[in-house]
Model the fold of this input.
Amino acid sequence: MTQEVLLFSVLRQRLGTPRITIAVQEGISGADLLDQLSEQYPALAPYRSMIRLAVNQEYVSETITLSGSDEIALITPVSGG
Amino acid sequence: MADKSVIAMKKKQWIDLQHEKLDAEAVVRFLQTPRAGGIDIFLGTTRQWTDGRETIHLAYECYPSMALKEMQRLADEACERWPVEKVCLLHRLGVVEVSEASVIIGVATPHRVDAFAACRFLIDTLKRQVPIWKREVFADGSTEWVEGDAMPWTK
Done:
């Protein structure tokens, strides 16, 4: 399946786009998705350890199983307020 | 169409993201209720000097749907943990000049001890959880994304 991933802040700036896509297996884990994203988009690799995964606008553990209809976003350390 | 602030007055919670300047007086009016003996309001403002570096302004962006969802979650948690009569969370987006407010948090409770505690909880947790990011623009022309305080994450 083709998964779209939303980017914000420093990731959006580094990759020059608010969204990236990646071809992955249905039922992939969040951790594997992040690993594969870092391989396909090397600019993400330095941020891998500080990225929190959000699925359908909620923080999730990387052990989560993803489905093709999920809205996925990479959340780097936030700085509101 | 009814004025947004009029609609907000009738509810218990006022949560929003906006590009316009934040209106603290409107927040006070919203929070006033006969059931409260204390109103605590916090404003986060753009500071000019940090470690010898001069800030020109801060620029905020966010993941809108999730930011609102997280702000709602925080408000709901505050209402569960303290006897909150009214709660307001407003965050500004875009450029926020020195001394201007980027965020207003306000709560109204029967007794002040709970107002202080709930307000503190809301701003401290917003700064760790809500997907909003600021970019700092300095007088020397440099800019950087402020990393802030993220919650420790257990995988």
Chain A has a mean pLDDT of 95. Residues 30-40 of chain A form the longest helix (11 residues). The two ends of chain A are 38 Å apart (CA to CA). Chain A touches chain B at residues 6, 8-10, 13, 31, 50, 52, 54, 57-59, 61-63, 73, 75-81 (CB under 8 Å).
